Amino acid sequence: MTSTLPPIVQAFSGAAGSATANAITYPLDLVTTRVQTSHSAKGATGAVRVFRHVLHKYGLDGLYDGIGTDIGATILSNFFYFYAYSFMRNLLSRRKAPGLIPSSSPSSARNIPTKTLLLSVPEELAVGFLAGVMSRAISTPLSVITARLQTENEERDDAESKSESPVEPRASTSSRLAQVVKSIYNERGLVGFWRGFEAVVLLSLNPSLTFFLYQIYRRLFLRGTDRQTPKPAQAFVGAALSNSIAVAILYPLILAKTRLQASRSTSRTSSISSASYIWTEAYQRGGLRGLYQGLEVTIVKGFLSQGVTMMVKQRIEQLGIALYMYRSASAVSA
């Protein structure tokens, strides 16, 4: 992602791409969360069991529990991430090479930005990390609510299997949302909405690592104008592969974050200490594989989601450039 379009344009295109990808892959996201928080559902087989169980018991609607808050978190997170990333990257590029990135004034089509500066590895990772921290600080409350909504049926099913008395029927979506928000607040106050944020901060390495790998993909496999402005299909492949590698590297953190955010615990223990406990328990239960429970379905979901995000983002930016050139040419001819 080295477009020199204005940050607000990149933020809009990134948020639109991520929202589209999220809507398409959300059932996979729900299944992933259920697998990550379950002590019995493991690997691809466990994911299939979870999918079939939810579909059979709750219907198609059950596969979209929490999608409203999740799309909200996705739009917020990605809008601020792409805005902060592009703003800081362009700022750093201008300081390192003044004049390389021209200002995009509508007075002439010649002012359309066409070049970017390749940053060093530490610079790329630092910019991505800082952008990730800022975006996740804003979107974490919605992510916590989503995780609780996604695992609510799992706890309900466990209670139903252990009790002979009938379980109360499910409340409406708005009522369940209000109950989850109230429950989180009662457990730990406002701090509860940022539960697991320390682990989330570390996971800000995920998007920075993803985009760093994406830059490598562009430098190694794309040539000419495609390297500067990849075609949507090229953006899909590069982003999907990059995200899959990043997820595999950081997966134990992803597992800890999901379990922390889905937890009903009222403990004030720090997220880092809680994450250590989660890793110890996971290792004792399943050995090294326990630390990677649900990795397969997470990679599939991330592959599709990141690929669609970048493909849609690239298409929107291409349309934006074409519109900009058309308006600029019209202004010059007039």
Give a description of the structure.
Keywords: Membrane, Repeat, Transmembrane, Transmembrane helix, Transport. This protein has 334 residues and is an all-alpha fold. It has one domain: Mitochondrial carrier domain (Mitochondrial carrier fold). Helices cover 75% and strands 0% of the residues. The chain contains eleven helices and no strands. It has helices at residues 7-37, 43-62, 67-96, 121-162, 173-188, 197-202, 205-221, 225-228, 232-262, 271-286, 295-333. Helix 4 (121-162) crosses helix 7. The longest helix has 42 residues, at 121-162. It is globular and about 70 Å long.
List the helices and strands and how they pair.
Blueprint: H1 7-37, H2 43-62, H3 67-96, H4 121-162, H5 173-188, H6 197-202, H7 205-221, H8 225-228, H9 232-262, H10 271-286, H11 295-333
What's the domain count? 1
Query: How big a fraction of the residues is strand?
Result: under 5%
In this structure, how is the largest beta sheet organized? none
Q: Using the coordinates shown, work out and report the CATH topology.
A: Mitochondrial carrier fold
Approximate shape: globular
The CATH superfamily is Mitochondrial carrier domain
Low-confidence segments: 102-114
In the CATH scheme, the class would be Mainly Alpha
Tell me the helix content: over 70%
Helix/strand class: mainly alpha
What is the radius of gyration computed over CA atoms, rounded to a whole number of angstroms?
Answer: 22 Å
* CATH architecture grouping: Alpha/alpha barrel
GO molecular function: ADP transmembrane transporter activity
Membrane topology: Multi-pass membrane protein
Family: Belongs to the mitochondrial carrier (TC 2.A.29) family.
Subcellular location: Membrane
